[in-house]
Amino acid sequence: MKIFVPKEPENENRCALIPSDAKRLIALGAELSVEQGLGERAGYQDIEYTQAGATLVALRSGAIADADIVLRLRKPPAAEIAQMKKGVLHVSFLDPFNEKDLLNAFAKAGASAVSMEMMPRTTLAQKMDAISSQANLAGYAAVIRAAERMNRILPMMMTPAGTLSPAKVFVIGVGVAGLQAIATAKRLGARVEAFDTRPIVEEQVKSLGAKFVKIDIGETGQTAQGYAQALTPEQIAMQQAGMAKVCASSDIVITTAKLFGRKAPTLLTKAMVDGMKNGSIVVDLAASENGGNCELTQADKEVKTANGVLVIGDTCLEGNSVPYHASQMYSANLFNFMDHFWDKKEKAFALKMEDELVKGCLITHGGAIVHERFKTA
């Protein structure tokens, strides 16, 4: 089978496939071609891909039209979908809740489109879970970015000139990103507190050496896939009131409440930020064109408030800060997905429609939208 991996847009530093995984795909029996410069911005050179056995392509249009499988990170331009041959398998992030026209274009083209965002959160699918792999790095990068921007150090330091107190870090949301942020801040010597609407995560917070902040907001829980359930307006108000006191004494606040397919909830209001001390940092991991967890967040900008608080709204912290390893992890997710369904005898990808993984992430197939949640698109 012919697999093609195109280069990502100019504003994306990551790549979908790294050379070592290219070699593994070829070992499965795939005929692999990649666009020139595919991994350049992430730190992978063209010669590494050719040494792995891949063919370099200068113009992507012909390769896309000829490919049986197209692997990428970002969603494709609509014009490229029309160039793909009927029956092609396309795998990438698709943002399916907000891209109805894109889904219809895939269906019209007769493509089998897999959305990496929709990978089920099961034990079997963990090694294919790109949302979690990227969030893990985002949590790490959030602490490093804050440490770089802050005008003080993170660890306690005892010197002849006096003792420097450790910085206080407050992490809001204890998912994959939040846990990594806690672990990273602790490694750097900070005092860490964390809050989540799910009481079940308290033990995880404590196991990392952090303090779990308890705020009584009534009945809460989590979805079947492990995400926090949406709060009522009343619960959000109680949560904000409880967090305001912790934010006021914190040097760094990291928010991680990113809701897939929906606008992120506002957790930090302007009034809360106004109550924070001069020189403190807010890193909003839910930053997007629609805002973020902080009322003052602006997409891909750093906003300095009148009281000296810096609000960082990087919409892709993992890609902008650590693209080498972010690419490595996403590439592994892609390879593991391909390998799971690869027929070793036929040396081809075998899409099994009855498989639970396929049911979870396959959006279009056979000229129609087949995923139950998007059929009305």
What does this structure look like?
The protein is an alpha/beta fold. The chain folds into two domains: about 1-120 and about 325-370, Rossmann fold, CATH 3.40.50; about 135-320, NAD(P)-binding Rossmann-like Domain (Rossmann fold, 3-Layer(aba) Sandwich). About 35% of the residues lie in helices and about 15% in strands. The chain has 13 helices and 19 strands. It has helices at about 20-30, 45-50, 60-65, 80-85, 100-110, 130-150, 175-185, 200-205, 235-250, 270-275, 315-320, 325-340, 355-360; strands at about 1-5, 30-35, 55, 70, 90, 110-115, 155-160, 160-165, 170, 190-195, 210, 250-255, 280-285, 300-305, 310, 340-345, 350, 360-365, 370. The strands form four sheets. An eight-stranded mixed beta sheet has the order 3-2-1-4-5-6-18-19, sandwiched between helices. Strand 7 (about 155-160) and strand 8 (about 160-165) form a beta hairpin. Helix 1 packs parallel to helix 12 (about 325-340) and helix 6 runs parallel beside helix 7 (about 175-185). The chain is globular. The model has no long low-confidence stretch (mean pLDDT about 95).
